[in-house]
C-alpha cells in the first residue's frame, strides 16, 4: 500500500553478545503509488520530521522512489544536544540501505540525500558504498574534517564512486566560498559525474521548500533558488539511478 509509514531496520553491528536481541534503527518511509523504480535514503540533521522534510519525501515518492529516512538520533536521550556524525551515522545508513535492498531495490538504484553534517556523510557514503547517486546539501567539513578520523571533503572527493551533486548557499558562514571553490577543484579529479552549485544571496540552506509571499509572488530570488535546488535534486536522481 502506498503512503507514509514507520518501520525499523536491523543494524549490521548487533553488539558484543550474540544472544541479545538485535539492535534496530527506527525508520520513516514513503512508498510510491506503483512499483518502485529505486530507493532514496534521506539523512537529515534534525530530531523531528518537519512538514518540509515530509513534503520532500512525498515528492520523491511521487517520482517513483521508495524513500526512507533513518532516525539518526535514536541512540540519544530526548534532550541531548549531541551532534550526529561518525560511525553511528554510517551504520544507520547501512541499515536503511539493507532495508531497501531487502525490498528488491538494486544497490545501484539506491540514492542518498544528506543535509548539513549528514550531507557530509552522503558524500563519504558515495566513496565507499555501492550506491547509484548522492546529493549533499550544505555539507560542511570541506577543508577541515568534522571529526577525528574523518577525511575532509576535498580529500575524499577524488575517490567518489557514484555521481555526486553538492548544493550550497554562497553566504553560508559554515561553508565559505573559497572552501567551496576548493571542493569544485577536488571533485574534478573524480572518475564519476560531479557538480557543485552555489546560490547567490542564500545563507543556509538551498533545500527547503520555498514559502511564497501571501500575494503569490514567486519571483523572489531566494524562492527561485530553492525551487531550482529541488529541481536539481530530482533531476540528479532521475538521470543517474537507472
UniProtKB/TrEMBL annotation:
Q: Which SUPFAM superfamilies match?
A: alpha/beta-Hydrolases
Instruction: Identify the residues that the record assigns to the Dienelactone hydrolase domain, covering every copy.
Output: 30-238
Instruction: Name the Gene3D superfamilies for this protein.
Output: alpha/beta hydrolase
What are the boundaries of the signal sequence? none
In its UniProt entry, what is this protein called? Carboxymethylenebutenolidase
Species in which this protein is naturally found: Rhodococcus oryzae
Amino acid at each position: 500500500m502506498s503512503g507514509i509509514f514507520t518501520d525499523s531496520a536491523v543494524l549490521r553491528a548487533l553488539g558484543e553478545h550474540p544472544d541479545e536481541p538485535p539492535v534496530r534503527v527506527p525508520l520513516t518511509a514513503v512508498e510510491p503509488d506503483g512499483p518502485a523504480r529505486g530507493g532514496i535514503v534521506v539523512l537529515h540533521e534534525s530530531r523531528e520530521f518537519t512538514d518540509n522534510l515530509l513534503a520532500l519525501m512525498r515528492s520523491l515518492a511521487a517520482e517513483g522512489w521508495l524513500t526512507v529516512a533513518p532516525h539518526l538520533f535514536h541512540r540519544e536521550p530526548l534532550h541531548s544536544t549531541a551532534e550526529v556524525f561518525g560511525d553511528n551515522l554510517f551504520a544507520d545508513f547501512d541499515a536503511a540501505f539493507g532495508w531497501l535492498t531487502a525490498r528488491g531495490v538494486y544497490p545501484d538504484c539506491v540514492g542518498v540525500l544528506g543535509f548539513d553534517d549528514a550531507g557530509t556523510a552522503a558524500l563519504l557514503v558515495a566513496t565507499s558504498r555501492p550506491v547509484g547517486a548522492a546529493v549533499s546539501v550544505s555539507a560542511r567539513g570541506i577543508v577541515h574534517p568534522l571529526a577525528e578520523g574523518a577525511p575532509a571533503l576535498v580529500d575524499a572527493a577524488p575517490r567518489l564512486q557514484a555521481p555526486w551533486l553538492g548544493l550550497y548557499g554562497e553566504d553560508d558562514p559554515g561553508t565559505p566560498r573559497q572552501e567551496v571553490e576548493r571542493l569544485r577543484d577536488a571533485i574534478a579529479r573524480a572518475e564519476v559525474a560531479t557538480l557543485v552549485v552555489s546560490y547567490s544571496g542564500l545563507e543556509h540552506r538551498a533545500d527547503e521548500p520555498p514559502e511564497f509571499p501571501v500575494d503569490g509572488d514567486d519571483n523572489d530570488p531566494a524562492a527561485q533558488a530553492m525551487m531550482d535546488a529541488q529541481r536539481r535534486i530530482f533531476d540528479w536522481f532521475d538521470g543517474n539511478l537507472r
